[in-house]
Amino acid sequence: MTIQIDLEKCTGCSLCVPVCPFGVMELVNDKARVKEGCNLCGACVDACTFDAIKIEKAEQKVSEGYKGVWVFAEQRDGKLKSVAYELVSEGRKLADKLGTELGAVCLGHNIKDVEHLFQYGADKVYLADDPTLADHQEDLYTELLLNLIKKYRPEILIAGATSMGRSFVPRVAALLYTGLTADCTRLDIDPETKLLLQTRPTFGGNVMATIMCQAKRPQMATVRPHVFKKGTHHKERKGQIIKVDFKKEAVTARTKLVKFIEDLSEKVKLDEAEIIVSGGRGLGKPENFQIIKELAEVLGAAVGSSRPPVDEGWIPYSHQVGQTGKTVCPKLYIACGISGSVQHIAGMGTSECIIAINEDPNAPIFQVATYGIVGDLFKVIPMLTEKLKRSRGPV
Amino acid sequence: MNIIVCIKQVPGTTEIKIDPKTNTLVREGVKSIINPFDTYALEEGVRLKERYNGKVTVITMGPPQAEEALRETISLGADEAILLSDRAFAGSDTWATSYVLSKAVAKITNYDIVICGRQTLDGDTGQVGPELSEMLKLPFVSYVSKVEEIKDKHIRVQRMIEEGHEVIETTLPAVITVVKEINVPRLPSLRGSMKAKTAKIPVWTAADIGAEVDKSGIPGSPTRVVKIFFPKREHKSEIFQGTVEEQVAKLVERLEKII
Amino acid sequence: MEYFLTEQQKLIRNIARRIAEERIIPVRAELDEKEQFPWEIIKDIANADLFRIFIPEQYEGMGEGSFALCIAVEELSRACAGVALTYAADALGAFPILLYASEKQKQQYLPAIASGMRLTAFGLTEPGAGSDAGAIKTTAKRDGDSYILNGTKQFITNGGEAEIYTIIALTDPTKGARGASAFIVEKETPGFTFGKKEKKMGIRCSATRELVFHNCRIPKENLLGKEGLGFIVTMKTLDSSRPGVGALAIGLAQGALEAAVAYARQRVQFGHPVSAIQAVQHMLANMAMELEAARALVYATAKTIDSGAKDFTEEGAMAKVFATDMAMKVTTDAVQVFGGAGYMRDYPVEKMMRDAKINQIYEGTNQVLRNVIALELLRRKGLRE
Questions:
Q1: Catalytic residue (one of C30, C363, C376, C385)
Q2: Considering the entire predicted model, what is its pTM?
Q3: Are B246 and B240 in contact (CB under 8 A)?
Q4: Which of C15, C52, C62 is opposite residue B188, by nearest beta carbon?
Q5: Of A22, A23, A98, nearest to A66 (Cα)?
Q6: What torsion, rounded to 10 degrees, do the Cα atoms A72, A76, A79, A80 define?
Q7: Chain A residues closer than 8 Å to B161 by CB
Q8: Which of B155, B150, B183 is nearest to B168 (CA)?
Q9: Which chains touch A (3 or more CB pairs under 8 A)?
C-alpha cells in the first residue's frame, strides 16, 4: 500500500498541496513530498497534471461466498420504524442492481406488520420475536445479528443510524472484522466491481468521500433516518418469513434495563411531522419560542430547534434538529433565526421545502433554502402567523 | 477505581472551506483541540475519581503532536497520559483505531471502566466506543447522560435515546460513551497546569502494545476512501424583497400551494 | 509592557482570564440585576486553585505573594468587579490568620481557605466606626475559657456567605485603640447572626451584610496573637490588601477601556467611526495612560511587598488611591465614549461606572489615605528611601 511521487515528472507546481483534505502534501526543495497521515484517498492523483503521483493498492484477499443485500429493520416496542422501510426501499434498488435477494432482519417482541417489509421490497424477513428481546438489549441483538450473518452470509448490510443502530451495529462489524461506514447519504453499486459505494459528507460537509470495503464482508453502512425516502408500497407483494431459532440460554445480556423514562414533551412528534417550525439563536431568549409555537400551531406543525437554544436550556433536547439531534425530512421546514451551520443542515437539508427567515443576508441557511426572507423575525413571524390564521381559519 | 479515558486530537474547525476560485481546500489557521465530546468523557472520569477515589489514565492514538492534547488533559485532572504513536497506525479507520486502543487498554490491565466521547468532530462515526468494547469483550452502554451509582462492581447509568431515557445497569469493567448532557467540563486548575508542564508522557509504539502491523493503519483498515469530490451546489433560492408586508405576502402565496 | 511574570504567574493569569471570559462575562449582567451571590463562579475559581495563591505551601497553598494575587484579581475584575471583590475580600479575611495566627490555628483554617471551600470575611467597620476605626464598640469579654462577643459590625463584604470571620473587638474598652484584639469567629456559632443584606449602587453580586454578636461565646483559642494586638493586626491586614484593591480598580478600568475602544471603532456618526474624532482619541489616550501608570504603581507596590519589605504603608496607600481614582475617571469616561448607549443597561459600561465608586471609599477612604501618605512623606522628609 504505497503512494509514490515520481520526482522526475514532478515540476513542483504545488497543485497537489491544497487539494489534500488531510493536509499531508508539502513541497520540499521544489518537489512534492507526502507527510505522515496519508489516507490514499487519491485527491492528489486527480489534481496532478503531470502524472507524477501513483498510488498502489495491495491486493486484498476478498472473502468468498457472500451474497444478498440485508437491511436491519429496526423496531421499537413492536412497531417498525420509518427508517426500516426507507432502507428496505433503498436496499431493493441495490439488490436489483446486483441481481440478488433483499433480506430484512427483524429482532424484538410482538412485532406488528412484518409483511409491510415485503410490500416495500424485501424478499425474506429473518424474524426473531421473543419476550427476552422486548427490552431491546444490545448484547442480544449483537449476538443474534452476528450469528445470522455468519449463517447466511449477506454481502451487504445496511442499518439506520439511530441510537440503537449506532450502538450495536459497530459491535457486529468489530466481531466480523469488516468495514462499516456511518451516516451515508448515497449508496451505489460499482458497475465493474459490484462493490457497494458508500458516500458520506466529511470535513463539515464541504467535501464528499466515497468509501469502499473491498475485501471484508459484509460491507456495512448506516444511514440516518429520512435521508432516503420510502419507495412505492406494493400491497400485493409477498415474501418468506424465516423464524430465527436462537437458544435463549446461550445468549445472555450483560446489561439490564432498570426502567425507561419516556420523553413526553413533544405534542407533535418531530420525526414524523410533515411541517416543522424551528427556532435558533436569533430568538434571543427562551420566552421568544412562543412566537415559534404560535406559528407551529396555525400550521399544525412540530416545533424544532437548532443546537444553541438547547445548549442554553431554552428548549429540551428532544426538539434538537441536527447532526447530534434528530434528522428530519418534512414537507416543509421553516428555519427562524437559524444561521444554518453545517451541523444543523445535516439534520434537515433533505426537507422538501425549506424556508429561512434571518436578518443576516449572508447566513448559510439561505444557500439551502427554497424561499427566504432577509428580515427581522420578530416582525416577519407574527405577521406570517396572522396572515395564515386569517386564510386558514382556526386549526 | 481505575478509569481509562480515550481521547482524540482533532482540528479546531472541521469546516474545511473551499476556495471558490480554485476549487481547492483552504486549511490555514486551524489549530488542534481535544475533541469536544471527549472533554465531557474526561470530566466524567475525573468526577468519578473524586467520588470513588481512583486514578484517571488518558490514552490517545495519534501523531506526535497529539501529546499537547494529552498534557491538557492533565491540567484538567487526569493523573497519567499515554500516547500511542507509530507510523504503522497512520490512516487507520475505526476498526484499526479500536484495535490499537484495545491493545493499549489490555496492556494497562488494571482498570474498572473505559470512557469515550460519543463521536469525533472530524469523523463523527461514533464507532470506536462500541468496536472497542467488543475487542475488549466488555459490556457496553452508549449515550450515557448520567452515572447514577457505582457499587460492588456494578454501575447504573442513564442513557439518552430518541424516545427518552433508559436506566441501565451492568457489571464493571465496562465501556461507556457519554453525551454532552452529562456534565459541564471544568477549566484547567493551577496545580493541574503545573503538573501538566512537567508530566512525563510515555509513547507506546506498535511493538510496545503488541499491535500486529497488518491489523493497524491502512493495511488493517477494512474500509478505504476511494474518492474525494466537491459536491456541486446547484441550488437556487428565491429571496423575497420589499417591505415586510410584501415579503410575507409573497411567502404566504407560495405556502398556500404547498400546505 | 513587560512585567516579567514567572511561568506560574503566567498560568495564574491565563486561568483567571479563562474563568473571566468563559464563566463570568456571560452572567455578569444577570448577577448584577438579581444581586445574586456568584456561588457557581466561586466554585470554578476554587477548582482552578486560585484560592491557593495567597496561602503558603505547607498549608496546601501555592505560596505565591502579593503580585500573583494582584494578577488574579485584575483578570477577574476585568470581567466583573463584584466577583473580583468576593475573591479579594476572601484574601482580606485570611490575612489576619496568615500574619498573626499560631501554628495550630494556621493548620486548622488555612487548608480549608486554600481549597476555596470555606470563604472568609474581615469584620472591622461598625455603624459608628468607619474611617474612625478606633471608635469601635464591639466588645470581647473574657469569661473563663471563652470570650463573649457583643456588638454589631456593618458593611461587611462576604457577610453571611463566608464561614470564617476575622473580627476586631475590644477586650479592654478602657485602653481605647490599644484595647482591641483580633478573633476568629465561625458561622453558626450561637449568638452570631447576620443583619440585612445591603442594597448597593454597584458590586451588587457581592454580599454586604451586618454581623450581629449577641452574647456570642467563642473559645479562648480563637484569639489571634495577643490581647491588645487588634489594631496592629488591622493596620497590617489593610496594608497587605491595598494592592489588591488597586488591582481590582485596574481590572475594572481595563474592561471599561476595552469596551470603549471596541464601541468607538464601530459606532458610525457623520460618516465615520467616532474613534476617528480627535476629541474621542484624546479621551481614550488619557484613559490608557492613566491606566498604565496605575498598573505600574500597583505592580511596583506588590513587588515591594513580595521582596519582604517591612513597611509599605505609604506605597500601599498610594497604589490604592491612585488606581481607584483612575478607575472612577476611566469608567465614567467610558460611558461618555459610548454616548447614549453607555447609559443603557444593555451595555456593560454603566455597571462598571457604578462598580468603580466604592473603591474610592472602602479600605480607607481616599481622603484618609492622602493623610496617611502626607504623614509618611513628611516623616521621611520627602527623600527617597
A1: C363
A2: 0.84
A3: yes
A4: C15
A5: A98
A6: -20
A7: 163-164
A8: B155
A9: B
In this structure, how many other beta carbons lie within 10 angstroms of the beta carbon of residue C356? 28
* pLDDT of amino acid A393: 62
Strands annotated E in C247-384: 268-269, 272-273
Q: Quick check: helix, strand or coil at residue C270? A: coil
Residue type, A239: G
Chain B: closest CA distance from residue C50 (Å): 7
User: What three-state secondary structure class fits A75?
Assistant: strand
Nearest one of C269, C267, C284, C287 to C341, comparing CA atoms: C267
Residue to substitute from C10, C15, C22, C51, interface B, most B β-carbons within 10 A = C15
**Nine-digit cell string for B185:** 467540563
**Cis amide bond preceding B11, omega within 30:** no
Find the CB nearest B228 among A139, A207, A372: A207
Q: Do the Cβ atoms of C79 and C38 come closer than 8 Å?
A: no
Q: Interface of chain B against chain C, CB under 8 Å?
A: 186-194, 197
* Mean confidence (pLDDT) of chain C: 96
Phi and psi at residue C42, in whole multiples of 5°? -60, -40
At C214-260, the pLDDT tens digits run 999 999 999 999 999 999 999 999 999 999 999 999 999 999 999 99
Q: Looking at residues B27-47, what average pLDDT do you find?
A: 89
Reading the block at residue C60, the C-alpha cell is: 496546601
How far is the alpha carbon of B195 from chain A, nearest alpha carbon, in Å?
30
Those of residues 13-32 in C touching chain B at CB distance below 8 A are 15, 18-19, 22-23
How far is C49 from chain B, CA to nearest CA, in Å?
A: 5
Distances (CA, A) of C313 to C133, C230, C237, C378: 17, 17, 11, 14
Using an 8 Å Cβ cutoff, are A374 and A361 in contact?
A: yes
Q: What DSSP element (H or E) covers A140?
A: helix A138-152
Using CA atoms, how far residue C169 sits from A7, C122, C192, C218, C228, in Å, is 87, 12, 14, 13, 10
Would you state the pLDDT for residue A311?
87
**In 3-state terms, what secondary structure has residue A42?**
coil
By three-state DSSP, how is residue A204 classified? helix
Using an 8 Å CB-CB cutoff, list chain B residues near A209.
Answer: 225, 227-228
- Write out chain C residues lying below 8 Å of B192, CB-based: 49
Active site residue C363: yes
Q: Which of C81, C68, C131 is nearest to C327 (CA)?
A: C81
Q: What is the pLDDT of residues C271-291, one digit of tens each?
A: 999 999 999 999 999 999 999
Sign of CA dihedral C295, C297, C303, C306: negative
- Distance from C-alpha of A360 to C-alpha of A358, rounded to nearest angstrom: 5
